């Protein structure tokens, strides 16, 4: 059996009782490393805390490993219980859907244990989850690559009065350009996008496209470390949020659509 | 301190370690009753299981009680730790936003402990959460009341190729017409909408509006008891799903938009 277990958002105590029971009976425990180290603020020390809690040693599985060794992991899951731990909910990212598809094709039983994810925890700011449109991703712009397909999606959401959740880029294990040339793998330090950078990029795209989809007076909510003890939630105009230091990762951003009175009251509590 | 604690979707073991720790230190524990009895499949017996697990007695708080006694609950939370337990995630419903607003106005500290909700657990069917549009609610039609405002929302989602999550009506503690006339409160037995009824109503509205937003060949995914051990997930056309018995509550429905190959592969596994 392959258990895909959501760990929730904050720290090691956000696992469910059901999730913990499942981990404890697994002979092998993998943990996706792409985003988890950053979002759980894990040092190698933090990982051993998790190992103590679970009573199991954990193998970190980065993107390469999951892609290359998926069949190996799935073969283990054929004859024993294997856990694959995922920060948030198991279906926040496409990679996890992919591993389920591969498991089902190999005839491996899969059991999913859900948990909170950014997709529902943003509800804490008071904006109703029912009134969100399509979610967008904001990638880091480079000198030569400045994709702005999020602009149309935000436009359509705003036409309908809907809120937009913006997921902000995370770069881990990006090979350095130097290492690519030399054919030897060396990695850039991990980078995560701040609310401030996201807003700068959004405003740059608005400037270039000029359709007045949003502007520096558009009300947004910035989030940092959502679901953790020290989460930070601030509502204000884009211009105002540019001046806020949200601190350590992970960050995300909501562009506010049409609001109802209860939503407005809640936003006031998070105002600058 | 007022702790608003998400219990997740399936049963008593879906609470997080953090949530359980918080409940155990509260002097008073309330549990919202609107949907929880149905979705946890709770009998009075089930409630005592929860009480044993938490080591606390639980006061069921129905909608009337939350509205009438909110100030009383919040006053208790001023000088002691009070837990308010919510099935799913705390911000699935407007009522909970409302109690947070009231708490903040009274200067009561609020701490939210997140969990899985329908809004993210539907991800289990393989349709990417990023590609959902606005969520709609399908209310029970009566002889004289057949509201169809969901139709425009589904239309806008489908124009953009987005999936639509349809939340289906739940009626608990509805006063009987007889009791309203007599001024004495008597309640109808609880009712929850099945996937089948939802599809019948959707097709009736399409028939009346005639804009070909969807039809009996539109692919959907029906869910029952999402997140429970015995959850049922079936993908198929509206016509096909009409013939499926999804069993006990709660049910919900997704109208599928434009799909990507990985999404299609997952839907195949849930096909009839």
UniProtKB/TrEMBL annotation, chains A, B:
HAMAP family cross-referenced by the UniProt entry: Diphthine_synth
Organism from which the protein derives: Solanum pinnatisectum (tansyleaf nightshade)
InterPro entries on file: 4pyrrol_Mease, 4pyrrol_Methylase_sf, 4pyrrole_Mease_sub1, 4pyrrole_Mease_sub2, Dphthn_synthase
Residues engaged in binding S-adenosyl-L-methionine: 9, 89, 92, 117-118, 168, 226, 251
Record-given protein name: diphthine methyl ester synthase
Function, in words: S-adenosyl-L-methionine-dependent methyltransferase that catalyzes four methylations of the modified target histidine residue in translation elongation factor 2 (EF-2), to form an intermediate called diphthine methyl ester. The four successive methylation reactions represent the second step of diphthamide biosynthesis.
Ranges where the Tetrapyrrole methylase domain occurs: 1-241
Enzyme class at the top of the EC tree: transferase
Homology family: Belongs to the diphthine synthase family.
GO molecular function: diphthine methyl ester synthase activity
Pathway: Protein modification; peptidyl-diphthamide biosynthesis
Highest taxon, organism lineage: Eukaryota
GO terms under biological process: methylation; protein histidyl modification to diphthamide
């Amino acid at each position: 059996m392959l258990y895909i277990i959501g760990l929730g958002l904050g720290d090691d105590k956000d696992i469910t009782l059901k999730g913990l029971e499942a981990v404890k009976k697994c002979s092998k425990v993998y943990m996706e490393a792409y985003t988890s180290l950053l979002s759980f603020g894990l040092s190698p020390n933090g990982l051993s805390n998790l190992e103590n809690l679970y009573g199991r040693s954990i193998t970190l599985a980065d993107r390469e490993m999951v892609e290359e060794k998926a069949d190996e992991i799935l073969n283990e899951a054929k004859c024993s219980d294997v856990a694959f731990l995922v920060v948030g909910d198991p279906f926040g990212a496409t990679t996890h859907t992919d591993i389920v598809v591969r498991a089902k094709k190999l005839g491996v039983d899969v059991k999913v244990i859900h948990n909170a994810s950014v997709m529902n925890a943003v509800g804490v700011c008071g904006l109703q989850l029912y009134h969100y449109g399509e979610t967008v991703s904001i990638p880091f712009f480079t000198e030569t690559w400045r994709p702005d397909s999020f602009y149309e999606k935000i436009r359509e959401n705003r036409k309908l009065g809907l809120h937009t959740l913006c997921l902000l880029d995370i770069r881990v294990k990006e090979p350095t350009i130097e290492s690519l040339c030399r054919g030897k793998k060396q990695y850039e330090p991990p980078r995560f996008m701040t609310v401030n950078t996201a807003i700068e990029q959004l405003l740059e795209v608005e400037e270039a496209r000029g359709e007045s989809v949003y502007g520096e007076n558009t009300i947004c909510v910035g989030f940092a470390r959502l679901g953790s003890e020290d989460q930070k939630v601030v509502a204000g105009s884009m211009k105002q949020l540019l001046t806020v230091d949200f601190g350590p990762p992970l960050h995300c951003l909501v562009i506010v659509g049409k609001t109802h009175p209860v939503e407005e009251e809640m936003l006031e509590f998070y105002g600058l």
